[in-house]
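Lecture 7 notes: from sequence to structure.

We start with a single chain of 583 residues. Read the sequence below before looking at the structure.
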Amino acid sequence: MFKLARYLKEFLPHVTIGPVCKFTEAVFELIVPLVMADLIDVGIKNGDAAYIKSRGLILVLLAALGLTFALICQYMASAASQGVATRLRDDLYHHINTLSYKEIDKIGPAAMVTRVTNDVNAVGQAVAMLIRLVVRAPFLVVGASVMAFSISPRLSLIFFGAMAAIVAVMFPVMKATVKLFKKQQTALDGITRITRENLSGVRVVRAFSRQDYEKGRFDEEAEQYRRFAVRAGRINALLNPAIFIAVNVAYLLIVYFGGSFADGGIDGLTQGRVIALVNYMTQISLALVVVANLVTIFTKAAASSARINEIFELTPSIEGGKSSPKTDENAPAAEFRDVSFSYTDNENALEHISFTLGRGETLGVIGGTGSGKTTLANLLCRFYDRTEGEILINGADVRDFPTEELRRLCAVVPQKAELISGTLRDNLSLGRDDISDEAMQNALSAAQAREFTDNLSGGLDYTVLQGGKNFSGGQKQRLTIARAIARNPEIIIFDDSASALDYATEAALREALKAIPAAKVIISQRANSIRHADKIIVLDDGKAIGIGTHLSLIKNCTVYREICLTQYSEEEINSWIEEGAHE
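Now the structure, written as tokens:
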């Protein structure tokens, strides 16, 4: 938690004024038993109505002043706690957005959601308690003990004995629960992950009638969370009974010995002073209950702070260059030089890949599932950093480009079409604010999307629901293609982005893409989607086993020919070879 204390600097007045007000309220509260003792020993004993009224007015004044200071402190605590939580949440979210895919994969999206929401709220609650009660509760315990000692040194030993017994229980409980709260928050990550997966994949779950299975997964995670919560709750439950047992025993001893001392005139005790001692014991008991709750709150906050700091301690493995590198207008648009990459230290996802992509050319990438096609696209855009070799864009190393400049040069149409909530214009202008409506319409035409967007009410201002749920799969793919084209990049990567399109629409899209001057990388499972590319790379288990044109690969690359045979007949393939021979 100390690492997050820097967020309190901005709210230093709140952190200062709030505890001072609460301290003042506690002082008034400590005065009340003394006033009550005088009221009993003087006013009631002597039947002095005027004295009783004067002391009564003092009690009302103390209550009013205490309430005023308490309200000021409450305001300061609320402002500081919500302010700290907001700043912390903003910084955490900003830091997450600086992380590369590698760091995000390490923590997991579900765990990050929990930390940005639940864990930050726990820290904000701890800040509020810090201002409101951290000063007041210990001061009341110490102050009431001192006041009791001033009234009767011998009876005050009862106070110290009760506090020692409570502290002896409190610290072991705190030590035991902090580990359980960490496990509890980890279990909450699992609940968030399963809920996120289930809601995002609700159509798949229902299509395969897996509702009961998903309920079972959720119940298992929820049960694990419950077990940790119950174990932590059982241990915490020891605090309040232990406090009340110690306090009630102290009550009995104070009344018993206090009555004896008052009857015998020992320590100058009177009935009013015995009542004051009982009131001080009550104040101590209430303050210790607050301390016990503070232990629980700060234990949770400590566990949450550790989880938040775990994200802050992650440093992005990919950082862009400080300034634009020197490029060569005569160099290829993109070039891989003996590139290898590994997600882990055990096995390469890509090995020794080399190719060049000229300006305006089209590169096709094909291969079986898990062959490394998407990995190649991620390396070109530098979502991951290559392990070996060089990757160049316009003759400059991708590591030398500032991240924003690299993202302007390369546009990606991802394998899974994703739209953001907002309007159609918001989606098409994503990443650039200077795209004109005409450029958006031209991009929609090239992506073969005008056939349905022209019929939308509001046109470019048509509302897009979260995730683009008001569009079909094919429509979302065409919109994401239009989004990439509208940015006017130098390289466009289509990562199996036409899988939901019918053959006629895909053919029209290929024809429209020819007019786009950008270099294009088309990743596909369909041989027909890439057969007209200037160059095709065939990947198999992370290795480039063939590079060439469609016809040369059919003749010379067994794997490519086998892929084509799964989609076309032997006669069609032979006819392609014959056509190539006549050209």
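The two ends are 73 Å apart (CA to CA). Keep this in mind for problem set 3.
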